[in-house]
Amino acid sequence: MALALLQQQDAQGIGEFEQAFAIARHLESYDGAMIENNYGVCLLALGDLAGAMRVQTQARRRSERLGLPYAARLVDGALGCLLYHSGDWEQAGAIAARVIGQGDGTQHGEAVEAHTIRGRMALARGDRELAAEDARRALSLAREIGEPQYLVPALGFQAHLHVLEGRPDAAAELVSELVRDWWIGLALSAESLACAAFAASQAPAARDEFIAAASRYALPSGWVEAAAVVAAGDFGLAADRYRAIGSLPDEAAMRLHALKRGIEAGDMRPTLAWWHTVGAAGYAREAAEAIGVGLRGPVSGPPPPG
Fold it and tell me: Exposure of 105 by Cβ count < 10 A (0-12 exposed, 13-18 middle, 19+ buried)?
């Protein structure tokens, strides 16, 4: 009931999830773990990263305690997203690699999220080849599964890469498909919308359509509000919106987009320092080129997980 209401953009679904979670906290069972996970995913999609982390951490412990591998894998998918946005890319990469390695011959949506996260980290680190491969695998798997919450991140990331490849028309097709056919997936995956929003900002054929859909979105999601600003091309303001949510990579990416287009990008020093800690050599070099200076010394940090 709660999910169905949220997919219809009915905020009553938030209250339904809160009631279910209040009961689930006392259920030492598979149902209790699943309700916790679903509520955590809901909080993540609404932009409450701290609340989502608390709930998913509890769900992970319960899954381990009760020996529930399927529930644990679901929770890992959400934890990977949370760690990616919080800036802990070492842990996010480790979880992504674990989830991808748990395919066991079945198709599962958590692998879509894992490929997208790994691909976005690879792109920031300058590994376009790995980013493209992860985007391809994410979209292929998402289409096989056919569930809206997995098509949103996969279509968005592939559209983003199409823009970087100089293919705005191909990007516009994917963004239009997302808005037309899979928009209800935002109830569970709005945190991934920045890629599609950036693609829309660079693809005139889809820009107005995306902005209109985001502006009409009825649930109180900071991600969707920020995405509308991104699509309109106001990257400096978008960076501030993502900072308010707590997404380090989305804030950093928007500051880079602003810098490259001569828009007020704000203080880049914290962004550059964070990129160095996570090995985001690709984005750091792009920023240095936009500023007009060369990088001094290597960019440190772990390599993209295999």
Answer: exposed
Q: Distance (Å, rounded) from C-alpha 298 to C-alpha 292?
A: 17
Residue 182 DSSP symbol:
S
Question: What is the distance between the alpha carbons of residues 182 and 155, in angstroms, rounded to a whole number?
Answer: 10
The per-residue pLDDT for 244 is 97
Measured distance CA(255)–CA(235) in Å, rounded: 7
What pLDDT band is residue 107 in, cutting at 50, 70 and 90?
Answer: low
pLDDT of 103? 64
Count of CA atoms in the C-beta half-sphere (13 A) of 191:
30
Which pLDDT band holds residue 25 (cuts at 50, 70, 90)? confident
Q: Which amino acid is at 91?
A: Q
Which residue segments constitute the domains of the chain, with CATH numbers given? 2-291 (1.25.40.10)
pTM for this predicted structure: 0.91
pLDDT tens string 227-243: 999 999 999 999 999 99
* Burial of 142: CB neighbours in 10 Å, binned 0-12, 13-18, 19+: buried
C-alpha–C-alpha distance, residues 95 and 84, integer Å:
10
CB atoms within 10 A of CB 231: 29
- Of residues 157, 167, 82, the one with CA closest to residue 124: 157
The DSSP secondary-structure symbol of 264 reads -
Q: Are 253 and 276 in contact (CB under 8 A)?
A: no
d(CA 88, CA 61): 20
Q: How far apart are CA 67 and CA 261, in angstroms?
A: 51
Q: 170-194: buried (b, 16+ CB within 10 Å) or exposed (e) per residue?
A: bbbbbbbebbeebbbbbbbbbbbbb
In this structure, the chain runs to a length of 306
How far, in Å, CA of 118 to CA of 136, rounded? Answer: 12
